[in-house]
Every structure is written in structure tokens, then in C-alpha cells.
Amino acid sequence: MNGAESLVHTLADGGIEVCFANPGTSEMHFVAALDRTRRMRCVLGLFEGVVTAAADGYARMAEKPAVTLLHLAPGLANASANLHNAKKARTPMVNVVGDHAVRHLAFDAPLTGDVEGAARPFSHWVRTARTAATVANEGAFALHAAQSFPGRVATLVLPADTAWEPGGSPVATPEAAAPEPLAEAQIAAAADQLARDGSGSAIVLGFRTLTDPATLRLAAAVAERTGATLLSPTSNPRTERGGGLPFIPKIPYPVDDALALLAPVRHCVLIEAAEPVAFFAYPERPSRVLPESCHVHALARPGQCGREAIARLAERLGVEADPATSPGERQRAPTTGGLEPELIAQAVAAHLPEQAIVADEGLTLGRAIYAATRDVVPHSWLSLTGGAIGIGFPMATGAAVACPDRKVLALQADGSGMYTPQALWSQAREGLDITTVVFANRGYQSLKQELFKVGANPGRTALDMLEVGEPALDWVSLAKGMGVPGERVRDAPGLSAALGRGLASPGPYLIEAAVA
Amino acid sequence: MNGAESLVHTLADGGIEVCFANPGTSEMHFVAALDRTRRMRCVLGLFEGVVTAAADGYARMAEKPAVTLLHLAPGLANASANLHNAKKARTPMVNVVGDHAVRHLAFDAPLTGDVEGAARPFSHWVRTARTAATVANEGAFALHAAQSFPGRVATLVLPADTAWEPGGSPVATPEAAAPEPLAEAQIAAAADQLARDGSGSAIVLGFRTLTDPATLRLAAAVAERTGATLLSPTSNPRTERGGGLPFIPKIPYPVDDALALLAPVRHCVLIEAAEPVAFFAYPERPSRVLPESCHVHALARPGQCGREAIARLAERLGVEADPATSPGERQRAPTTGGLEPELIAQAVAAHLPEQAIVADEGLTLGRAIYAATRDVVPHSWLSLTGGAIGIGFPMATGAAVACPDRKVLALQADGSGMYTPQALWSQAREGLDITTVVFANRGYQSLKQELFKVGANPGRTALDMLEVGEPALDWVSLAKGMGVPGERVRDAPGLSAALGRGLASPGPYLIEAAVA
Q1: ipTM summary value
Q2: Which residues of A touch B419 (CB under 8 A)?
Q3: How large a percentage of chain A has pLDDT more than 70?
Q4: In CATH, which of 3.30.70.3040, 2.30.130.10, 3.40.50.970, 3.40.50.880 is domain A341-513?
Q5: Which among B419, B420, B466 is the top mutation candidate for probing chain A, defined by the most A β-carbons within 10 Å of its own β-carbon?
């Protein structure tokens, strides 16, 4: 057995079922091993940023890692913006990045580059395989690292000769380590504080607390009993919503809105969440958005188990959750009106299928739709986590691979959509059940707001840099070019009808909502 | 004057006229400074890989750097595959990469990342600006580094507060350093060897030797006098060709072809070229493609002046160049036949305009066309230098920005074209005079050859990973989606007619050659 085969068996034995891939010459033996072993489903992406965001979307839904296959330092670089998002999401992921055979590196061939160096800023764990005999062991370490709670991005560099040489044998991956223990004293102090004066307290729930309905209900019961406010970070990997689950507002992205919301908070309880800070720095604004006098209670950092923290907090407060569920409210679709944010949101809320997965890179409009869908049918909501735009199309792709029996609705801003449009081709190739709405506002709207916010008093040249309307992007043609059918809508009833069509038919469908 | 304005003035005073940009919030003050100073043409790219390849194509033609504007570590990562190509091409380039304000970095906001770490594998020079008062000085150093002979990729990280704070003032950029001196003794030894037994010698000409017609003629005279063979590396940033200039064959990309060609070489004279090596390592093939017994004479490394090396070599041999030029031969366009490589090449050779710039990411077909255009009208040929696919569309874009009075012909393989198709939008927006031929063979043909070459005996899963034909990419629709008109052709006369139409009309045009 060669090194590549031993690595494929090791990863498959460890539970990996899917390989998202954009291979090159140095990965041909790994490709051949995937072929011979037939132990993974292979999904091809035409660009590496598609591959990593798809693996991210997959893992958020499957709750286990996929493997990605990438080609040398430039391929890894193309993949890295969405590795950044996955790293911030604490998504479990194993990247296998081919490199030249060790003996070839000294010659500085055209594709030679520093693969480990390129990987380090975007991975939690990086290692280069040494020999064909040890590559399976290194793969097991990578998988083990990826499965550290709640998840880590692990990158294994695979020199071509460690893949093609014989002498490999599969290795069992060690059990994932348990989350780091909680500090009981901090839980006790927070419980005391909440019992004493809950109304000035905010409880910020992040990461895996947001994916467990029972935890969400228990947190809501704690908030109700103590008068505390529940919040979640601006960006979250996955949130379970609808069907009677409590609505957890997000800390707003605009810094002034965040400052205003948090101004009355005297105690902030963090559960799998970091202290909230501004997304960007601005000349006349603080980086920290909590009031300076606010006391911070970090009950569970990311890496500790927030579900357990909430359970213990509830226990100390003597609170139990109300297990009642509801089917969710069905909103009425708009029958008139243009593509205003509230009517767009209403149309989506009306058509969202039960157990849908929403992949949200809708930015401004995504926020409006998030608010409007708080009480609808049960669904999962996936967000852009690291601020690196270009996650939407491929994250939806990966989620659909993970959950073939659920409908995926992708909400996509147009400027961001141009970073990884190639994912549409993978959607068509795999026949994935994804309906995408592109909000064609023909510009980087959030950047225009930012330009004014930094006090830059912009002129023509500056504003031109934030316009994507000249020429107008024609998303229906772009989708057609990649094998995805679609249509353009110009008003709310048109959007509503198109959503009905797209969500009712199997396979991918794209709706360009011409909002400007 | 704030730091951003002082930096813009410094770079403009140093000769930079164009900024290729994909900005975000942290670059808004630099954008505002570009706006207020009006000292640079700003060209927007919808994806960062477009920005850096355009700056590369621009610099290859303008023979001076452009500046790129990029957003944080993920934006830099998206730009890096084409930075890799630019670094291998030794293209002068200054990247300005925004980062969070220094005070904001401690808070690990979602977009926080290691910008310097991400830059280092893909840049020759990396520095982070410290204060608004010193940023101009750091910019001058970056520009000076970029202009080191023959060119370097310099990356300046610009924390937002060093851009927005006051206290900046422009700085003069030091003169570019002269190339490293040549070793006269080596030139003498090579001249003696060539005079004694030229017929077993190969002279490999790289980098700037290929862009100077006088140098090419002199090298040809040396070869004619001594019986030596002229060669160039597999990948070259820019080659001046046609109009009676000597044809310099490239060392073939397929390793077996390179080994066969070089087998008789007993002496190899390298002039601005590294020793030729295989593009990739293969199990049963050497990394070095020169015979083991071959003597290597490194007259000029990249960084030394090959033009001077050839002049001195010619002087020692008493050789003078024949200055005669020719208008080049005009080939007849094919009037019948399908899209076979030789007929495609014939159609291109027949239609290539005088002083055209060819941006070649045509891979296999690009090689056929390279051979067929050896004796046509004068033109410049730009190649993929670092093997990181996805340079074609944007390199053509940058070349057209540099030379508005010349026609640009882009030769584009379809698999590679899907890495940076967004460049078509910039072509439409800027009204650039570029005709693109996409060779739609619906697969990664070179990878298929590689899969067989590594002896992997591929099955269905493996071959599926190298097919992009299901669904077929519809390049005419993709181009339309980005505002570029186009057509599909299915035979040689159709291609010929379409080339005529595209090259005769101003602005961008795309031809999908359905070769499979």
C-alpha cells in the first residue's frame, strides 16, 4: 500500500466520508487512491475557495469534518480566505495539500513555494508528512487535531513522494479530547449575580450553544427567570431557529448600533463567546463595545462546553426549560410592492421550507431576513463567520452535500458572490437542491456606508471603486454559464413566485433580485 | 496630510501611475486619498487574484510597477496565487494591504489575521507601516525594493490608523540599485568553450534578455557563429517575437521531451536563467533535466544583467548582430477544417495584429500557437510564469491598461479560466481592447496526461475529478454575465472569422472555441 492509500484509509476509518477537491499533478496519487479505495465521495470545485467553504458548510451541518484536497502553495492560498472563515467558525476540517517530492524542492521549480508558511496563518494545526510509512500517522494526528472541541482547521502537507512510495499502513485516530473543564467558581459567581440583578445583564451565547435546541430553551428560561437579555455574536457558524425556539438577537454589525444596544449592560456573561468588539476600528470609536464599567463573566471560552455551562447555571438558579415546541408561524407572501428589504424578508419567511438550511451571505439584506424569520418553521441558519466575503455559494454547496434530504436557501449579496461564483458549477454537477437569491444592488453597499463612516468625504473616484453596476452583472447569464437555471425578478410578488418555483423543483436554481 | 495621502504622493512621485484595487473598510482612507490626490488611475477588480495578475501584466508591458490595494489577510490570500506568478516572473510590484488599526489587533475581531505571515511566502519584501509619520518612508522603501533589477514583489502592510492619522509627508524614493556585477572570468571561460566546441552547447536566455530585440539578434549571431543552440525556459514573463527576430524554442514542459531535447548538451550557458529542471517530480524521472555530465556556465543569474552578459560574450567572440528586420510573414487563414491544434494556430497566426500582445494561458494549445507564430508580425508574448493557473484573463487586462494603443489577444484554457473569470468584468468596465479565445476542451487535459504519467492507472472517480464538461461551461453566457460580448465557434473558418471580428472591433470580445 502506498502512502496515499494509507492516508485515505486512515481518514475514512476516522469517519471522513467526503473529499472536496481541486487537485493538481502533485496530488495525482491521492486522487488515484481515492479512486481505488472508493471510501469517500469526491466533490470537485473549479476553484479552491469553493472547496474549503464547501467543506466548512458540510462540517457545520454534518458535525464532522470533510477532507479537502489542494494543490501546492498557490492552491492553498486560493483556499485560504475561506479557511480563515472556517478557522473563526472553529469548524473541524482536514486539508491535504500536495507539495513537490522532497528531492525536488531544492531545485526551485516554478510551482515551488512555502506551503507550511502559507498554511500557518489560516490553520490551527500544520504539519508536513515525512515518509510514506508515517503519513497515515500524520493523517491521524491531523484528524485528531481537527476534532478538538469544537473544531479546528488542520492542514497536512503531503509531499508527492510520501504519497507514491510504498510502505504505508492505516492508523487508528485517537478519540477526540474532551472540552476543557469549566471553572465552577465562575459559574457560581455568575449565578449569584444573575439572581441578584439580572436585568442589567446580557448573556452572550456562541458556537455550539446555538446549535442545540435544549440548550437554547434552557438559556431562555434562565433569561426569563432573571431578567437578563440573551444575545449572540454578530457572526455565528450555525444557529437552530424557528419552531418555537427562542429568538436570540445578534449584536449588530454597525458599531454605533452595537454601542447603543450594549450601553445599559452592567454584567456580561460569555458562554462559548469572546468579549464583543467592533468588527473594524474607526477613528472616533472604541474597539470594545461593552461599557468600560461592565463586568465580564467568561463562563465558557470557545474550547469549553457552553451547553454544560448553561446546564450548570440553570441548575444553580433552579430553572428548568419549557420543552414546548411549535410548528412555527407561516407568514403570508407579499402580493404587491417592490424589492424593499421588508418585502424581500416577508417573501423569504413565507416560503422557507421546514428544516431548510439558510446559507446567509446576504449582508445587509441577510440581517433583515434574519429578523423576519424568527418565528417561522424550524430551520438552520449558517453565517459568514470571519468576514472574508465569498463564502455563500460554496457554503450552501457543502451544506447540501451534508443534508441531501433538506432544502438549502442561499442568500447572496452580489459583490460577495463574485468571489466564488464557481460553486454554482459544482451545484449543477452534483444536482444539489439549492435555491439561491442574489441581491443585485450593483455595488459594495456596506463599503459605501463605511467610506462615509470613516469620514472620508468621498468623491467620484472613490465611489467608482465601490460600484459594480457598470457594467451590470447579469447573474442569470452567469448561472446559465455554469449550468444552473435561473430568472430575474423585479418586485416582491415576482420574488415570491420565483422562490416557490425554485424551492419546489429539485436541483439548483438562481433568482436574481434586481434590488437596484 | 494624513498617512494615506503621504503614501499616495510618495508612490506617484516615484513613478506609479496605476492602482489595481479591491478595497475593504480598512483601506477606505487610502481610497479617499486616491480620490483627493487624483494622481493614479484606479482599476477595480471584483476578486483579488484579478488585481495582482493585472498588476503583473501591466508591469511586464509598462516596465514599471503598479500598486495593488488589498484588504487584510484573506484579501491578500486571494491575491497570492498570482503574486506567486509575479514573484517567479520577477515582476516589480508594490502591494498595499490594509490591516486593522494597531490598537484593534489585540481584540481578535473576525477579520483579524497574520497579514505579514500570509504575505511572506509570496513576496520578496514585506514590512508593516508603523506610524502615519513614517508610512511614506516605508512606501518609498517598498517601491525601491520593487525596482531592484529585474523586479521584486514588495508588500507593505498598512494598519488603518497609519493611514488615517495626520502627520504624513511625501518622501523621495531612492534610485533603483544597479544589477549585480558579472564575473568576467566566467564570461571568458564560456566564450572559450563556445569558440572551441559550440555545437554541443546550449545557451539558455531568460527574463530581460528576451524583451530586447538587439540582445536577441546578438545572441542569434553568437549561436550562428559558434554552432550553439539557443533555448529559453519553459515559462517566460515576456518575449519579443516576430518581425524577423530569432525564434528561441522553449524547453518543453513534458519532462520526457525536455530530457530528449537536452540529452546531447555538453555545455549549458545560463543567461538570466536558472538551471532547467522538471516542472514536477515523477517517480521514475530525474528532477534535473540536463545530462549529469553537462557543464553549467552561469553567466548571469536572475538579478544580473543578461543583456550585458551577451554583449560581452559577443565582443569576446568578435560577433556582431545582423540588424535587418522584416515585416514578418502573413499566414493564410484556414478556409476549411475543424478545431485541430494546427488549424487553430494557423488562424491565430493569420490574424495576429502588428504589435499585438499575446497573453498566453492556453497551455497545450498555447504551445502549438507559439510555434506557429514564430515568423509573423512583431508582437510581445506573455506567459504563465509560476504554474499557478488563473493568470490569463487578468494578465491580459493589465497589459491592455499599460498599452492602450496595442491589441491584446488572450489565449485561455477553460479549466484555468475558471480561476479568475471576474477579470472579464474589469475588461468591460474599462473598455479594454482585448480579444480572448477560450479553448473549451471541457477538462483539465494536462492533468489527465499527468495522471497517466505518474502511473496511477486511473478509474472513473479519478477521471471524473479532471472533467469540467458535466455540465459544460458556457463561456458565451459567462462573458455576457460580465458585460463582454462573444460567440461560440466550432470549426477553423468560424474561429478565423470570429478573430477577425473581435480584433477589428474596439473593446473586449470573447470567442469560445468548442474544441471538444
Answers
A1: 0.96
A2: 46-47, 78
A3: 98
A4: 3.40.50.970
A5: B419
